[in-house]
Amino acid sequence: MAQSSIMPGFRPAISFTIVYLSLVVLIPLSTLVFQSFQLSWDDYVHIITNKRVLSSFRVSFSTALIAALVASFFGFIVAWVLVRYSFFGKRFFHALIDFPFALPTAVAGIVLATIFQPSGFLGRLLIDSFGVQVAFKPLGIVMALIFISIPFVVRTVEPVLLEFESSMEEAASSLGATRLQVFGKIIFPNVFPALLTGFALAFARGVGEYGSVIFIAGNLPYVSEIVPLLIVTKLEQFDIEGATAIALTMLVISFLLLLLINVLQYWVRKRSGQL
Amino acid sequence: MSILLSNISKKFGTFTALDTINLEIPEGELVALLGPSGCGKTTLLRIIAGLERTDQGRVLISGQDRTDHDVSQRGIGFVFQHYALFRHMSVFENVAFGLRVKPRRERPSNAVIDKKVHALLDLVQLDWLHNRYPDQLSGGQRQRIALARALAVEPSVLLLDEPFGALDASVRKDLRQWLRNLHHDLNVTSIFVTHDQEEAMEVASQVVVLNHGHIEQQGSPGDIYDHPANAFVSRFIGHTNIFDLDEHDVDWLQTAGLSTAQPRGKIAHVRPHDIVIEKSTTETDAFVTLKDWQHLGSLIRIELIKNGSASSVYAEMPNDQFRRLHLNKGDKVDLRIRHAHWFH
Amino acid sequence: MNAITQPVNPAKLVERQPLALQDADWVRWILIAIAVSFISLFICLPLGLVIFKALSKGIEAYGAALSEPDALAAIRLTLLTAMVTVPLNTVFGVAAAWAITRFEFKGKSLLTTLIDLPFSVSPVISGLIFVLVFGAEGWVGDWLIAHDIKIIFAVPGIILATLFITFPFVARQLIPLMQEMGNQEEEAALSLGASGWKTFWAVTLPNIKWALLYGVLLCNARAMGEFGAVSVVSGHIRGLTNTLPLHVEVNYNEYNIVGAFAGASILAGLAVVTLILKTVLEWRK
Questions:
Q1: What is the complex's ipTM, to 2 decimals?
Q2: Contact (CB<8Å) A5/C103
Q3: pTM of structure
Q4: DSSP H/E element including C149
C-alpha cells in the first residue's frame, strides 16, 4: 500500500473498509461460487438446460430488454422535456421521477398488479378497448420493469443534457443545419453514451428484479415465471444446488452483459473522441 | 457584404442590453465591437447572427432585410468564444459539417467536400491535424479550426465572439496578425467582439465603441484614438491623465502650457505621450517631482507627483530620450502639456 | 457503472434558452404531452392508487389494520433493521470515501468497483448467499445449530441481507463529491495545526454533510423497503420475521387487501417523505 499524503487516517479507514467489505459482500458472495463447485458439470448442465429453467431465463432477459428499451425511449423524451422546456408542474414532475427508486418494490408490485389486473382500472380499460390483458402475462412483467427503469434512464441522461454546451447547437445552426440535423448529428451523438449507461443500468436491474414483478406476473411456469422467482421456488423446495446453479448462471450472464455494454460504451466514446 | 442595423433594441427582463442601435458597416471591413463587459457587444453580434431576436429594429445584410431569417438561413459564419467545436467529430468532419448538412440538391459531392475541406485546412495551416478530435488540439489550433469551419459555407459575413479571449497571451499576439492577414486575403466583411482595446486597435480597420447599450463612437482606430468623441472613449482607449478643473488645477495647467480659456469643457484628458518633461533648472518653482518609472519595452512610463497632491500623473517617452535626461527618483521636473482633449 | 445517480439541482432546470435552441411549438407540445402522459401513467397513477386504496375502506379500517399486533411487529422490525444497517453503512461509506479519495494506493479502482458490486446482484441472490453461509445446509450451518444460534429465518439474517443490499449507497454519494473537492482545505487545516479528527469534523464533514444526508436518506429508504433479499432469508414468520414489505405481501396474498394497502401506504408515505427530503437536499447542493 503506497501512501504519500500528509492526510491522516489511511490505515484505520482502509482496514475498516476492506474488513467490512469482505464480511458483508465478498465472503457471502464467494460462497455462491464455491457452493457451485460441489456440483459436477453434468449436474450443472442438467439443471440449467431444464426446460422450465431455460424458459425462465428467456422470460427474464426478454422482458428486461423490452422494458429497458421502452424506458430508454420515453425516459429520453422525459429528460429532454424536463431539461429544455418550461411548463406548468415541471418541478413536480422532476421530483416524481425518483418515485420508483424510493417506493419499496413490494408496494410497487401490488399497486401495479391492482392497476393492471382484469378488474383493475387500466386492466379493464385495456381489455375492453384493445382486448389486451396485461396482468399475469409477460406484458405485465414488462410494465413493472418499465416502472422500475424510468429513474435510471432519466437520471443518467438529464445531467448530460443539462451540461450540453448550447454553443455547439448554435454553431451547427449557424452552419445551416436544420433542427432535425442539429438533433441527429450534434445532440444525440453526445448524449448517446449516457443513454446507453441508463439503458444498461435499467436492463441489469430489470433482470434481477423480484418484488415489483411477482405480483403482476402470474408466475406461470414456461410463460411468465422469472429467474429470481425460480430461485426462490427452488430454495423453498430445499433444492439448494438448483438455486445456486441458476443464481450463478444469472450472475455471470449479468456481469458479462454489463462488461459488454461497458466495452460498447468505451468504443462509442472513443469513436466520438470523448476519450 | 454590407451590414445595416437600424434602431436595434433588446431587453433581458428589465435590463436594457441594447438601446436603439444604428450602425452601418461597409463591405469588406474588419470591424471591432469594443466595450467593457456588459455593454451589449456580444448581444449585438448575436443579433446580427440571428442567434438572438431583437425587440425592435431591423438587420439588413447587403441591403436585404434578414431580421426574420433563422440563423441557419442568414448565410453568416460565426466563431464562438470557446470555439464550440463538435467534440464527437474529427477536425475534418467539423469543417465539412456545413457542407454535409446542405439540402440534397445543393450538397456538393464527397470529392468536392474533401477537396474544399483540405483547402480550408491548408488555409489555416492545420491540414496535418485533420484526423484529430477537438479535445486533442491546443486553444490556438481550435480557434483556427473554428474559423475554417465557419468559412466552409462561404458566409457573406464572418462574426467572431471574443476570438482571442480564451488564448494565452503569446498565442493571442500571433493570431491577431494572422487574422488581419487572412481578412486581407479573403476580404469578407468581418465583425469581432472584444473587450481589449489594444486588440481592437491592432486588428480592426473600423472600431465601434459600445457602452451601456449605446454606440459611443465609430471610426478608424486612428480617429478614435486621436479624436475621442467623449470622455468614455478617451478613457477606454489607451491611457490618459484626467484633470478636472473643479479640482483647482487651472493655474497648474496654465503653467504647464495649456490654455484653459477655451470654452470647450472643464475636464482635460491628456495622453501620457503628450506630456513632455525636463529636468528643472529653477529648483524653487518646479511643480512636479519624479516618483518612479517603469519599462514598457520601447517606452518608459514615468510616474510624477504634483507637489502638494497625492495623485500621480503619467508621462511616456522613448527609452533613449529618457536616458538622455539623466533623471533620478526625487528630481524636480518641469512639465509641459502638448495637447489635451476637453470634455464636459 | 453506478446505480445511484448523482443529484441534479432542480434550479439548474430553470434557465433562459437562447433562440437557436428553441424547437417549434408543435414539437414542444407533442414532446411535453408524451412525457407528461408517460410519467402520469407510470408514476402518478400508482402513487394515487396507494393513497386511494389505503383510505377506501375508511380511516377506521386503516387504523385497525395498523394496530393489529402483526402489523406493529412488522413496523418494529423494519425500524430495527434500518436502525442497525443505516449507521453501519454510513460509517463504512465515510471510511471508504476517505480512503479512496484522500490516498493513492494499489487496487484503488478495484476497490471502487467492488463497492458497487451489490448493485449488480439480484436481490434474490443477495438473500440466497446468506442462506448458503448460515442456512441449515450452509457453511456454518451445523455449528450454528449446535450452538442454537439462529441467523436465517431470524432477525440477524434480515439485517445481514439488508446490509448487503444497502451497502454502496453512502459511499457512492461521497466518493465523487470528495474526489471533486480535492484535499486542499484539509491540508490547509492540517498545516494550521489541526489534528486529524479535528480536521475531519471541522473541515471535511461540513463540506460533505448534504451529500452524506442524501446517501443516508437513500440508504434508509432501501433498508426499510427491501423485499427480495429479505423475503429469501426471513421465512415469513408472522409477528417475528416479517418486515413491513413482507407483511404487505402476506396480507395481499391472503386477500386482506385493506391490511396490505394499509402497510403499503405507510411505505408509500416513506417514499413520499424520502422524495420530498431528497428534493430539499438537491436544492441545497
A1: 0.89
A2: yes
A3: 0.87
A4: none
